[in-house]
Design a protein that fits this description.
The complex is a heterodimer of chains A (450) and B (421). Chain A is 32% helix and 19% strand. Chain A is an alpha+beta fold and 450 residues long. Chain A folds into 4 domains: 48 residues, 2-Layer Sandwich (Uridine Diphospho-n-acetylenolpyruvylglucosamine Reductase, domain 2), CATH 3.30.43.10; 118 residues, Uridine Diphospho-n-acetylenolpyruvylglucosamine Reductase, domain 3 (2-Layer Sandwich), CATH 3.30.465; 110 residues, Alpha-Beta Plaits, CATH 3.30.70.2190; 75 residues, 2-Layer Sandwich (Alpha-Beta Plaits). The chains are: A alpha+beta (450), B alpha/beta (421). Chains A and B meet through helix 2, helix 7 and helix 10 of A and helix 3 of B.
Chain lengths: 450, 421
């Protein structure tokens, strides 16, 4: 039941516990340390890189019952929340004050804030407002040594080393989050969402560059290709064009006059690049429906095939057109169905290979194609992951991006927090990165991949 | 490790589920926040994704059908909120119904059965209750009076306590104003328990239908939709009910239903009986609000009353016509929406009686969402289009009425209607 998350790797939970508060978490970790048992935190299990997959029979510490919004300071626009609070529930709880929590992963209705901190989660609206780390002021955590610490603080720039920055995105390898001080954003006075419809991916990608080039920074700028658009439309019926080769979803926000001018600019740039149509959502219902489609994309692919292998590479926006072409070529070469739905504005690709694991020999091709895609992205000056994290699935690709010295520096940071190597073992850093295991080039444990 | 089922022929596996339906879940987890049992427990096994994982494990022979599995499957309210939320279109309702059917069939011979398993005698009694007995109106009326009297004498079993305080002598005494048989323009499906205990709702529905200038009739004999049997895993009993219902409404006239759960069941007869006449029957079925919203607008007066709209799960997630309730009530009432996206109230047919603890926790969550929009203020009414929800919400202390009753209250009397009386 707790052997996997929404990714593709599978482990085995040694035991599972459900702490109610930070003291319970500290108790569990202290017990783990005393008996040398590894442990892994789990929120809603919506992670896409196997970050919450328990390896070495780890104790799974589930945070779903730590789900209180502890306190909202509406004037300072911040709130202390427990890790099990769901991302969208947090926003709902502050809507009455005209505020929202900005990072909005596609799984925002289901994913927890603790998991968001663990992966430094992104989302469509992180283009303008930054990923989770820009919205976390402080983290209260239990370290792998069983100590409860507060990293960061209520003041903007706490003295000393920025351990908060190191902790956000550490995927449970530096400790388990027990409370988070998040920054809240005022809701923009005006929001306009546009749907642009293209006959080619190239035209859509060129439009993205065009929009950014004239100095507009949209709140969100998303692209979906033909197949995913059809799958999504089958689910939401939002009026996405079924015959488009690519669609762009552009959201602009701010003050009325400025936004209207930006809407006109985006319309013009779209048409210049051959957009067949530009539709502006008439009202909030239509806007919500369009977003529901975009945010359901990963789930909707089961309408095409039962499994998917998803990557999360980020490439420089200027290389978008070339990289996308190469990525589709790789799919053709491996004879696989590939789709793309991604944060075009910041070049964060989500190439999605859909397959049926029941067909023998498919998985090997899928894995090889995935690796080839990442190599292409890295060669274009990209990085391994934009927001999903490394987990176990992208772990062995880390050495393609980081030098041994880079990895060793990161390994020493983990060692400082986790001297016994019990916190979420085998995640993030490839084997051999940490001092205790130098030279022991252990691969991902047998059977961890499905 | 491969967790999905192999390519064995359907029916030969422990649960007999369709492997293609089972493999359709990609474990994305978007269903979790929409599942009432997951929301109140935080447990993966109490979520749709966890239940599917458990079904897969059992189907592939990696785990037996044990007490824990059985308990997990019975803990599902079958609200199908997950189905509406699932981007992959996983047919969870079908999967859980199939699983419960296999569990029900296996119960008496289950070698691993534990303390909670039912005995052969209990099963016979249950089958009797879920079968023909539901169509005996004298028995239902008698049990209604039993609950009314039992409440006065304080001898109600603990599990039924949430039901009993809300049944008033008035509800049980109501006489139907709807004629049986004939060739009406539309049929009103009156069902079993609701007909015996909440006849006033049917009368109100008929009044609203007549106000559109349409004649309405009810079936010659009492029939039950079979949903309770289906949810309990007694598929053969449910099919028997379905066949009787199909036979009870001859002709081509629309069949209008004012209980969300019954309406959902009737609309799925095509799948349940899997034949052309059942499919044709299902195509004639309308929820009463759906039907009224598509007719000419009703002559309504503005009441000034605030109504909090509670969506029955089987109206919102299964029939997906909950917006019609707003269309028809909006002309007469000030409507308020709870902010919980139609989360289940925990009533779930017989669920409140079979799983009182979970139903209680889910109910409390619902009550908090309703209170947050002022549903507990004096003069504010909660509209609920399903008898199960109505009973559950009344037990939580709210003033609850069926939308058609509110509609009937707001109707401006028309000359035509007086003539038809």
């Amino acid at each position: 039941m707790y052997s996997r998350d929404a990714g593709l790797s599978e482990g085995r939970a040694g035991a599972v516990c459900f702490p109610n508060d930070a003291a319970d978490v500290a108790f569990a970790i202290t017990a783990c340390r005393r008996h040398g048992v590894p442990f892994v935190a789990r929120g809603s299990g919506t992670g896409l890189a196997g970050g919450a997959t328990p390896l070495d029979d780890a104790l799974v510490i589930v945070t779903t019952r730590m789900n209180r919004v502890v306190g909202v300071d509406r004037h300072q626009r911040r709130a202390w929340v427990e890790p099990g609070v769901l991302n969208l529930d947090l926003t709902r709880s502050v809507t009455q004050f005209g505020l929202h929590y900005a990072p909005d992963p596609s799984s925002q209705q289901a994913c927890s804030i603790g998991g968001n901190v663990g992966t430094n989660a992104g989302g469509p609206h992180c283009l303008a407002s930054g990923t989770t780390t820009a919205h976390v002021l402080a983290v209260e955590a239990v370290t792998p040594t069983g100590d409860t610490v507060t990293l960061g603080g209520e003041v903007p720039d706490t003295p000393g080393y920025d351990l908060r920055g190191a902790f956000v995105g550490s995927e449970g390898t530096l400790g388990i989050t027990t409370k988070v001080l998040v920054r809240l954003q005022p809701n923009p006075p005006v929001v306009r969402t546009l749907l642009l419809d293209f006959e080619s991916i190239d035209a859509a990608a060129a439009t993205v560059s065009g929009i950014i080039a004239v100095g507009i920074l949209p709140a969100a700028l998303e692209m979906m290709d033909a197949e995913i658009t059809r799958a999504v439309e089958d689910f939401v019926g939002a009026g996405y064009p079924r015959d488009a080769e690519a669609v762009l979803l552009v959201e602009l926000d701010g003050l009325e006059g400025g936004v209207d001018e930006q809407v006109r600019s985006v319309e013009r740039i779209g048409h210049e690049h051959g957009a067949r149509s530009v539709r502006v959502a008439r009202d909030e219902t239509e806007r919500q429906l369009l977003w529901k489609g975009r945010k359901s994309a990963f789930g909707a692919i089961a309408r095409i095939a039962p499994d998917y292998y998803l990557h999360d590479a980020v490439v420089p926006r200027t290389k978008l057109v070339d990289v996308l072409r190469d990525v589709y070529d790789i799919a053709t070469r491996f004879d696989l169905t590939m789709m793309n739905v991604f944060h075009a504005g910041d070049g964060n690709l989500h190439p999605l290979i859909v397959f049926d694991r029941r067909i023998a020999g498919t998985w090997e091709r899928v894995y090889d194609a995935g690796t080839a895609i990442l190599e292409t992205c890295l060669a274009a000056g990209g990085v391994l992951s934009g927001e999903h994290g490394i987990g176990v699935e992208k772990r062995d690709l880390m050495s393609q991006y980081f030098s041994p010295a880079d990895l060793a520096a990161q390994g020493r940071l983990v060692d400082a927090f986790d001297p016994d190597g019990l916190a979420n073992p085998h995640k993030v850093l490839p084997a051999g990165s940490r001092c205790g295991e130098a030279g022991a080039n252990r691969p991902v444990p047998q059977g961890a991949w499905i | 490790m491969i967790t999905s089922p192999g390519s064995t022929p359907p029916g030969s596996t422990p649960l007999g589920l369709d492997p293609d339906e089972l493999v359709a879940c990609v474990s994305c987890g978007l269903c979790l926040p929409h599942c009432p049992t997951y929301r109140v427990t935080g447990l993966e096994i109490a979520s749709p994704r966890g239940r599917i994982t458990a079904m897969r494990t059992v189907e592939s022979g990696l785990a037996p059908i044990d007490e824990a599995f059985t308990a997990a499957m019975h803990a599902c309210v079958q609200c199908r909120g997950c189905e509406a939320a699932c981007p992959s279109g996983v047919a969870f309702g079908h999967l859980i119904e199939g699983t419960r059917a296999r569990l029900a069939a296996n119960e008496p011979t289950d070698p691993n059965r534990g303390r909670r398993s039912v005995s052969r005698v209990q099963r016979l009694v249950r089958r009797a209750l879920l079968g023909r007995a539901l169509t005996w109106s004298w028995l239902l009326r008698l049990s209604g009076w039993g609950l009314v009297i039992g409440r006065v004498l304080h001898v109600i079993p603990r599990r039924l306590r949430s039901t009993a305080p809300n049944l008033r002598p008035f509800d049980v005494r109501v006489r139907s104003t709807i004629e049986r048989g004939g060739r009406p323009d539309v049929w009103l499906f009156t069902g079993c328990v609701m007909d015996a205990w909440m006849g006033a709702t049917h009368n109100a529905a008929a009044q609203a239908i007549r106000a559109t200038g349409t004649t309405v009739g009810r079936a010659e004999r009492n029939v039950c939709c079979g949903a309770l049997a289906l949810h309990a895993g007694e598929q053969d009993l449910a099919r028997n009910h379905a066949r009787r219902v199909v036979a009870a409404f001859p002709g081509a006239a629309p069949i209008v239903v004012d209980a969300a759960g019954c309406g959902a069941a009737l609309k799925e007869y095509g799948d349940l009986l899997d034949d052309a006449s059942a499919r044709a029957f299902s195509a004639r079925v309308y929820d009463v609000h759906e039907w009224l919203a598509s007719e000419r607008s009703l002559p309504l007066r503005t009441t000034g009353t605030t109504v909090v709209v509670h969506d029955a799960c089987h109206l919102r997630h299964v029939q997906r016509c909950h917006t019609a309730v707003r269309s028809v009530l909006g002309g007469a009432y000030d409507l308020v929406e709870p902010a919980d996206e139609g989360m289940c109230c925990g009533a779930g047919g017989a669920y409140a009686a079979t799983q009182p603890e979970l139903a209680g926790a889910i109910g409390e969550r619902k009550a908090a969402a309703l209170r947050a929009v002022g549903a507990d203020r004096p003069g504010v009414v909660v509209a609920s289009a399903n008898p199960g929800c109505t009973i559950q919400l009344r037990a939580l202390g709210f003033e609850v009425r069926h939308p058609v009753e509110l509609l009937a209250d707001a109707l401006i009397p028309q000359p035509a209607e007086h003539e038809s009386r």
